[in-house]
Amino acid sequence: MFLIAQDSLKKLKNMISDFLFGEGHFERLGVFRFLIFGVMFYIACYRQMNVDQYGPDALIPGSQAFDVFSDFYRPYVKLFFWPDQLASTVHIAYIALLALATVGLSNRPLMIFTWVIAQGFIQRNFSILFGADVIGTLFMFYLAFTRCNEYFSLRRMISKKRVTFNPKLWSDQLSTMFFRLLQIQLFTIYAYTGFEKLKGSTWWDGTALWTVLVNPQFTSFDLLFLKDFPIFFAVGTFVTIIFEVYFWVMVSNKKTRPLWLVMGVGFHLMIGVLLGLMSFSLVMISTYVLFVYRSNLRQCMEKVLPKNLQRLISL
Amino acid sequence: MMIVMGNGSSFLGRYLGQYYFAVANTVGVNTTWNFFSPDPAHIMYIHYIIHFDDEYGNPTQESKEFFYPEQKDGSDFSMNVRRHNYMMRFIAIDPARVNQFFVPWVCKQNPGATKVQFGLILNRIPSLDKVITLQGTPYSDLLTTEELNPNVFNCPR
Hints:
The complex is a heterodimer. By secondary structure, chain A is mainly α. Chain A is built from 14 helices and no strands.
């Protein structure tokens, strides 16, 4: 009995070790880095037009920035270390750092610094945020601890060193562990998004999509004609909840993963086009790379990139 | 931590939170992931009138009327304009935030302003059942408009 228990424990330990430290995930991390930092770069370029809301004339003064948080959610450390007068300059520097990270010319300390600035802007004016700012910044945080610059990066083009993965090195252990955290974080986000919707009477009733799609503050299209197809709203509302709540189950399962990811791309593209939330949709779609098989991703990248750029993806 | 903090105000969140609140709140894991939930919002915007009075309460110049955001129906979908839409919702849902942040900001932008007359306009979208039942009625007639939290605030001196 004791031997069986010992054997099971050993198997479990090996399984966890394999899950956490089994492989380097360089391909997925590299492409994800390019996508997420690229989208954040795009969002930040637009946000430069709102930079007055982070300066001395902002609706929320710098001295009261933490007052908008309830005690429960108030940050402990103030990350906007710059004076309000320098908000524009710091934001431009942030855009430059995002550009460097997108092309893979950053490193862990620099990426953590980039995240500090990103989170600092979130703290400085919490009222003016998009969901994409919050989710994108959180993913930037996790990514900063990984070896995400080893694939699809200019660094690969410059460096002649071969990329190796050694699970005994703490640097590689940290990288693979944060890769898993990225996946778990995405599962958590989807699940809670679905659970939160179940608290609402219109989601439960099957008419929430109606309120969203005919609200001119949400959509730029006149979709009132859809009232003649009410079944669309009922099905759409329930499919949304099922997709979100069961995302982690279906994506964890290798057989159902492709179906759910394809559904997710369609779902987010629809949100992006109909609700004008393309930045949010791109952030969410980019995370799907984390679940694509390494071999598939490598083949795809080899086909997509022209020959003279193949060095970007040589490991 | 990331799993519990999605529902941080739950018992488990409060109980375990003491060990990692500092990290979770700083990193941003403490977010509640509620997009369009619990229920999608209706059409809303702020309507405000700025008054300029002397010390006896007599108007010194004509009052100014504004909407925030300027395109009250949100017809401009540029990202930079849309951020103001989000900011309006964040501020307007809590009357304390209106008094603490919105009024001083408006007063600062309008030197000489003494009072801000505030109202949150809510255009309630009719339910799908109502729209289907009253097919012959124009949609615009089914939208109901309410003014929430009307108040007059003095500008800080």
